[in-house]
Write a structure and sequence with these properties.
Order of helices and strands: EHEHHEH
Number of domains: 1
Shape: elongated
Strand content: 15-25%
Radius of gyration: 18 Å
Strand order of the largest sheet: 1-3-2
Largest sheet: 3 strands, antiparallel
Structural class: alpha+beta
Helix content: 40-55%
Number of helices: 4
Length: 95
């Protein structure tokens, strides 16, 4: 079981493809992991970007790329005892 006292952060990135490669490798090698996904934009920020996009699109149904494509940050944790093996298998650099 992974919980906050026995886990270590292995991976943080906004690329869903990179996160998928890491968790697939962990799963294939039987290493338990926990993944957290957080949206990288606040509601206020999304509204500001959307209103700016609508203004530049002639006031129509346009929107900005930021409002239409929310950005996410993927964080993957592993048990502390599995950390070194996970770094090696996933070809990541030690922190």
């Amino acid at each position: 079981m992974i919980w906050f006292l026995n886990r270590k952060e292995l991976f943080v990135d906004s690329s869903s493809e990179a996160a998928a490669q890491v968790w697939t490798t962990l799963k294939e090698n039987g290493i338990p992991y926990e993944m957290r996904t957080k949206q990288n934009t606040t509601t206020l920020g999304k509204n500001i970007h959307y209103s700016m996009g609508a203004r530049f699109a002639g006031g129509g149904m346009g929107g900005s790329a930021f409002a239409d494509n929310p950005q996410y940050v993927y964080t993957i944790y592993v048990r502390k005892k599995d950390y070194e093996k996970a770094v090696e298998l996933c070809h990541l650099t030690n922190k």
